[in-house]
Design goal:
- GO terms for molecular function: glycosyltransferase activity.
- This protein has eight helices and seven strands.
- It is α/β, with parallel strands linked by helices and 249 residues long.
- The protein has a single domain, classed as Spore Coat Polysaccharide Biosynthesis Protein SpsA, Chain A (Alpha-Beta Complex).
- Strands 3-2-1-4-6-5-7 form a seven-stranded mixed sheet, sandwiched between helices.
- Helix 5 runs parallel beside helix 8.
- It is globular, with a radius of gyration of 18 Å.
- 37% of the residues are buried.
- The model has no long low-confidence stretch (mean pLDDT 90).
Length: 249
Amino acid sequence: MPEISIVIPAKNEAPNIAGLLDEIDAACAPVCDYEVIVVDDGSDDGMDQILRERMETHPNLRLLQHLNAAGQRASGGQSAGVHSGVRAAKGHIICTLDGDGQNPPSELPALMAPLRAEGSEMIGLVAGQRVGRQDTMSKKLASKLANKIRGAILKDGTRDTGCGLKAFRREAFLALPYFDHMHRYLPALFSRDGWQVAHVDVAHRSRGGGSSNYNNLQRGLVGIVDLMGVAWLLRRRKKAQPGEVAREE
């Protein structure tokens, strides 16, 4: 049984996926026992064939594919990809990163370290915080504004919830309420359940190939609704926990 499960939600990342997996092996093999789960979110660029061939020589690589009710390939979004991967994972610690290659796998050991350290039982999430972000100016400005608004409303103490590099406890994640785009609100959701959230500065780099599956307008429109929903969840959290009374002898 692997200690760490590395979950990669990916759609149409054929130009990037093989190199990303090579980097993961180089970074993690000296550190821990791990598996890699790629969740194919409706790709049609041949990425799945690259992964099938690689699985023949890499027994710790697993492939999940999102399907609709008719059994055809379907896209559920990034949060659905993370959720599907975590449910299938065998490790008790989960690390996530994007499939576009912008999150350097060399950062994974630093992300998982706080959760593996002695006395870390109350840490539920380690959130990566991008430094020197390599994106277009419009994307960086939109992200900065969204993070500022989110932080003011949720007070989650996190400056960059959009970073794909995260590490967390599997059972704690699965106890969270699922909704599309929940991956952008994990610090607030983990804190809601009483977990401590740690932060690690991580590097960021340009996309290697392909194109982004989202644009600023799409993120902004869904973000307004999601933010109000998460704020409601925080207000309605369970405020008392049970303590069992011992039987008198």
